[in-house]
Design a protein that fits this description.
CATH class of the largest domain: Alpha Beta
Mean pLDDT: 88
Low-confidence stretches: 1-29
Organism: Streptomyces citrinus
Radius of gyration: 22 Å
Protein name: Extracellular solute-binding protein
CATH architecture of the largest domain: 3-Layer(aba) Sandwich
Strand content: 5-15%
Number of domains: 2
CATH superfamily of the largest domain: Periplasmic binding protein-like II
Length: 439
């Protein structure tokens, strides 16, 4: 009996091709379509589509891009329909590990795996064999603080936006992760992120939460109104009433009057790039950490994984991570949207001093780069972490902290007691010495 997968797969490709033809999302070129699912929409999606169009020439394939803000939900639905994209671009090592354990991912061929830079692409041990299942396409630096030049001295007045639809809470987990990294160091951070540290019993975890609460309390805005505003506002902020298109202006752009500093990753620069009164600096000095770890940084990334046996999928990953592919991407993007790449030999944004400073930390000035802890965790634990920081933000009391840490520890132990399918061992090499010492 013929599997229904073929017709479903062809129907999906036909729909995407029709949609892409209307939106400019279909790359030129003949041959069978290679469907790519990714997180970029708007101007970012247009730039990525342009790259696919360039790379399709001479490939014998048509590259079809589907960009969505609901990436996990879309991919889960496509997998359930047995109609996955050929290539998916995800930012969660935890999700990617689960897909590999479920035999949903294809190991990358040797040529595609050559650009598997640490800590973005830890290898997986699957049935006794060490394999590479994904590589970073673009990356971001976390552990950054943005502020207005000329901000008054004293304690920062922190901008906080916790909302993000299905992933509300992640700005809070970023805070807790960054504090723990700088207070306890990469070794403890790695144990915690990879499920080998007791949430409720670890002094380092408790201290990270209480330090975060103390920093936010110092902003003097713990009124119920301020709390609710932060819980319902994202890092995008509110639309700029003076801008004809109503573009978001970021939290420092007036969305939260009176705030002076924002803890956010490098991707937020596209909100502030047109301004010359916004500066960026490492977050370490704000976090109450040890001087030993002042040059440690969290990072995140958008990683490409192959989900089908299409030869065009492996070839596309090779092309996207090649020098040519990254140069094309950098040229295609608007200056403030040019991506950061994991290797110093790749083109880095140089449109302004802020971009140059961020690139310098990513490629050689940081001592240690550690992958975003919540994105390393299994999705069930990550989502519980999101909910926990929202609860603690609402009520940063000792009783609340005991409750949420006990709940998170229950989730962790339940996951630890579950056998991972196919003998997949979750990655532990999520921190990497950067610069000359780690090259």
């Amino acid at each position: 009996m013929r599997s229904p997968r073929g017709p479903v797969r062809l129907a999906l490709a036909a729909v995407l091709l029709a949609l892409s033809a209307l939106t400019g999302g279909c790359s030129s070129g003949g041959g069978s379509p290679v469907v790519v699912l990714g997180p970029w929409t708007g101007a970012e999606g247009e730039a990525f589509t342009s790259v696919l169009r360039q790379l399709s020439r001479g490939s014998g394939h048509r590259y079809v891009y589907q960009g969505t803000r609901s990436l996990r939900e879309t991919l889960v639905a496509q997998l359930a329909a047995d109609a996955p994209p050929d290539v998916a671009i995800l930012n969660s090592i935890g999700e990617l590990t689960e897909y590999a354990a479920q035999n949903k991912l294809k190991p990358l061929d040797e040529a595609a795996a050559e650009r598997a830079f640490p800590p973005w692409s830890p290898t997986l041990m699957v049935e006794g064999r060490r394999r590479t299942y994904w590589v970073p396409l673009k990356v971001d630096l976390k552990s950054l603080v943005w502020s207005r030049t000329g901000s008054p001295g004293g304690d920062p007045a922190w901008c906080v936006g916790m909302a993000a639809q299905a992933t509300s809470g992640w700005p809070g987990t970023d805070w807790v992760e960054d504090i723990l990294l700088h207070q306890a160091g990469p070794a403890t951070y790695t144990q915690w992120a990879t499920g080998r540290l007791d949430w409720a019993g670890s002094p380092a975890v408790k201290r990270a939460f209480t330090t975060w609460a103390g920093l936010l309390e110092a902003r003097g805005k713990r009124s119920q109104r301020a709390i609710e505003s932060s819980l319902t506002m994202s890092f995008w902020g509110t639309p700029d009433p003076d801008h004809p298109d109503g573009d978001a202006r970021g939290l420092l752009g007036g969305s939260q009057p009176g705030c002076t500093h924002e803890h956010q990753a490098s991707f937020v620069r596209y909100l502030y790039a047109p301004r010359d009164d916004i500066r960026v600096e490492p977050a370490a000095r704000f976090l109450g950490g040890s001087p030993t770890y002042k040059k440690a940084f969290e990072v995140s990334g958008d990683m490409a994984a192959v989900l089908t046996d299409s030869p065009g999928a492996q070839e596309l990953v090779r092309r996207l991570t090649s020098e040519e592919g990254r140069q094309e991407w950098s040229k295609a993007a608007e200056p403030h949207l040019r991506p950061f790449f994991p290797d110093a030999t790749d083109p880095q944004p140089d449109d302004n001093p802020v971009a140059q400073e961020i690139a310098s930390y990513l490629t050689h000035d940081a001592d240690t780069l550690c992958f975003d802890a919540s994105d390393v965790m299994p999705p069930v634990l990550r989502d519980a972490f999101y909910r926990a920081v929202l609860e603690y933000f609402r009520s940063p009391t000792a009783a609340t902290l005991r409750t949420i840490l006990a709940q998170l520890e229950t989730v962790r132990t339940q996951i630890a007691a579950t056998d991972t399918p196919r003998g997949v061992r979750r990655p532990t090499d999520i921190c990497h010495l950067s610069g000359p010492a780690g090259d």
